[in-house]
Amino acid sequence: EFIPLSSLLEKVSVKFQRIMPPTIQFSTDIQENIQLLGDASKIQELLYILLDNAIRYTNSGKITLTLLKNQDIVKITVTDSGMGITDQELPLVFERFYRSDTARQRNGTGLGLAIAKTIVEQHNGKIYATSQFGKGTTFHIEFPL
Ligand code: ATP
User: Fold this and answer.
1) How many other β-carbons are positioned within 10 Å of the β-carbon of residue 85?
2) Residue 62 needs a FRET pair 20 to 30 A away by CA distance; which of 12, 30, 56, 115 works?
3) Distance (Å) from CA 5 to ligand 1 centroid
4) Would you say the CB of residue 79 lies under 6 angstroms from ligand 1?
5) Predicted TM-score (pTM) above 0.90
6) Which helix (H) or strand (E) holds 143?
7) Is the pLDDT of residue 108 over 80?
């Protein structure tokens, strides 16, 4: 089924805006009228996982959600200005039950990103993270059209 991805992201943004801590500025850049073949509830879960992490690992600063379409790919990014992830840990964060030492002091199971990766792969997409430790992290998701 075709998911109205742009309106789904708008809807999720409104929800997250309401629970955003006052120390975090949340903004979006969502291109209109983008559709994707897939499962809307799973894509919503994917967004929840990434935005929930962004809030959890950012004490204060900015979180941005973007959606854009190129010729043949749809790209979603979630960027935060939080604690970041070290180069050593970056390849491990999508593993089941992996949690960094700093993250261990917080709640969580270490399953979120493994689930996110499964959802992306079920839609033939790919997910990866770029990060600067102490500065912030971006999760990139690309779906083929
Ligand atoms: P949960 O399963 O409840 O989400 P979790 O956040 O520990 O728990 P994942 O979502 O799988 O589990 O994330 C794995 C690890 O990746 C986290 O423990 C944390 O170390 C790191 N991580 C994930 N997102 C971020 C982020 N936005 N900034 C910094 N580190 C992150």
Assistant:
1) 22
2) 115
3) 24
4) no
5) yes
6) strand 136-144
7) no
CA 19 to chain centroid? 16
| Number of C-beta neighbours around residue 13 at 10 A | 19
Which strands form 73-80's sheet, in the order they lie side by side? 24-30, 61-69, 73-80, 136-144, 126-132
| Cβ–Cβ < 8 Å for 74, 5 | yes
Q: Which amino acid appears at position 9 of this protein?
A: L
Say if CB 10 and CB 30 are below 8 A apart: yes
For 41, the 3-state DSSP assignment is helix
pLDDT given at position 118: 97
How far apart are the CA of 93 and the centre of ligand 1, in A? Answer: 7
Token pair belonging to 21: 């801590």
- Angle of the 5-19 helix axis to the 40-56 helix axis, nearest 10: 30
- Which residues are within 8 A (CB) of 125 and not within 5 positions of it... i.e. 6 or more apart? 141, 142, 143, 144
Give the ipTM: 0.96
pLDDT at 100 over 90: no
Q: Are 49 and 115 in contact (CB under 8 A)?
A: yes
Round to whole Å and give the CA distance between 92 and 99: 9
Atom 27 of ligand 1, nearest CA residue:
54
